[in-house]
Amino acid sequence: MTEILIQNAQTVLTMDDARQELINGDIRIRDGVITEVGTDLAVGDAAVHRADGCVVTPGLVNTHHHLYQTLTRAVPGGQDALLFGWLQTLYPIWARFTPEHMRVSATVGLAELALSGCTMSSDHLYLYPNGSRLEDTIDAAGEVGLRFHATRGAMSIGESDGGLPPDHLVEREADILDDCIRVIDGFHDARDGSIVRVGVAPCSPFSVSRELMRDAAILARDKGVMMHTHLAENDEDIAYSLEKFGCRPGQYAEDLGWTGDDVWHAHCVKLDGQEIDLFAKSRTGVAHCPCSNCRLGSGIAPVRAMRDAGVPVGLGVDGSASNDAGNLILEGRQAMLLQRVANGADAMSAREALEIATRGGAQVLGRHDCGQLAVGKRADIAIWDTSGIESAGSWDPAALLLAGPVRVRDLFVEGRAVVREGQMATIDLPRVIEDQNRLARALAN
Ligand SMILES: [Zn+2]
User: Fold this and answer.
1) Is the confidence at residue 83, as pLDDT, over 80?
2) What is the CA(293)–ligand 1 centre distance, in A?
3) pTM higher than 0.90, yes or no?
4) Count of domains forming the chain
5) Is 17 exposed, middle or buried (0-12, 13-18, 19+ CB in 10 A)?
6) Cβ neighbours, 10 Å, residue 273
7) Do residues 187 and 241 both lie within one domain?
8) Do residues 258 and 232 both lie within one domain?
């Protein structure tokens, strides 16, 4: 690969250990890796990529999504429901999905993330109707060009066993574990710089058994992959845990092996002080999904308290059926605003929210090779044009989440251009949108 020199950025927000910010900054990339960060770097043989008037940040990291849900945005009947009612409206629609639905919806969701500055996303796919497989989404990520942490989700407790999902959407637990092994062996790449990793991710404590939670943790640790699930999302979730398990979600997680730096939980809106301490001590990660939490009325996650205690926190847009957007830079702004609603105007700065969206997410996903602009880190880079109307008049264009663009100008993943001049460089986006709308219309009919 040739060398690329990103040159003369108005500001480079490195998010490195010293949180350096370089004015008129340059970044050199070779073979997908950042080899130099500074000012007035020599051009040499590098292809020059001008960044005048731009703020350059690490690529944003999305730690929680259900990409398949981009086909069920703004579904009537689900627009104004609480979590459990919302799920029961959508399950029958999702039950009709095929591999084509999985692939196209994932392509749309990942492209939307890319355009909002995201270079790495996880996904939580927990239902496999009509022959759908995890690789339908891995293929989509390969086309779009994002770094991808696919997680093999699962549901095993159907309605007739007291669970929430309809029986025909749940799987046998032995089949789930077998397929986890198949996709880990087939797709997981543990190396530094890897583009695809696979995790193990039972959907939530209310849709799988205690045994599956425990066995999934044992399997994940045996294979050296990470574990992910939904936890403590809202009051109904806490009530369910107390009634069915006789304990709070944090205790349940700990009892079944679901704490540690190889675990991250989505939402955690309702963690109490003791659970926050448990997560901090065990380095258990949290995927904070502020828009989804607002959309479903779940509450305000105690992110300030989590960060102060040392809990690793990243951001997630969550599934597009409960957001309904998938714009990660706006998710960062929402995270900042929501902590201020709960804790006052000085509760979270624009830079801290951006740190959670970049470095924080990389930490949650176990990617110490990503999430900052520093020598030796992977070249996952977002370039934001701050010469437009959103930043016009800003005294601090680097405060992107206060007054900045909501769409990236250029995006590099492993040094490869995924977005160029605000357009997808890797896929024919208008064609994908057409496919998506055709599939959504057919589902609605
Ligand atoms: Zn979710």
Assistant:
1) no
2) 10
3) yes
4) 2
5) exposed
6) 10
7) yes
8) yes
* Dihedral pair phi/psi, residue 184, rounded to 5°: -65, -50
Residue with tokens 């357009």: 423
Place of tokens 């959907």: 203
Ligand 1 centre from 380 Cα, in Å?
A: 25
Distance 265 CA to ligand 1 centre (A): 10
The pLDDT tens digits of the residues spanning 26-51 come to 999 999 999 999 999 999 999 999 99
Question: Is 432 part of any domain?
Answer: no
Ligand 1 geometric centre to CA of 123 (Å): 9
Cα 203 to ligand 1 centroid, rounded to whole Å: 8
Segment 398-424 shows an average pLDDT of 98
The amino acid present at 101, given as its one-letter code, is H
Distance in Å, CA 319 to ligand 1 centroid: 6
Q: Quote the ligand 1 centre to 137 CA distance (angstroms).
A: 16
- How far, in Å, is the centroid of ligand 1 from the Cα of 21? 34
The reply to whether 262 falls in a domain is: yes
Residues 192 and 216 occupy one common structural domain: yes
- Token output for 57: 């940040």
For residue 64, the CA-to-ligand 1 centroid distance in Å is: 6
As a whole number of Å, the CA-based R_g of the chain is 21
Beta bridge partners of 378: 33
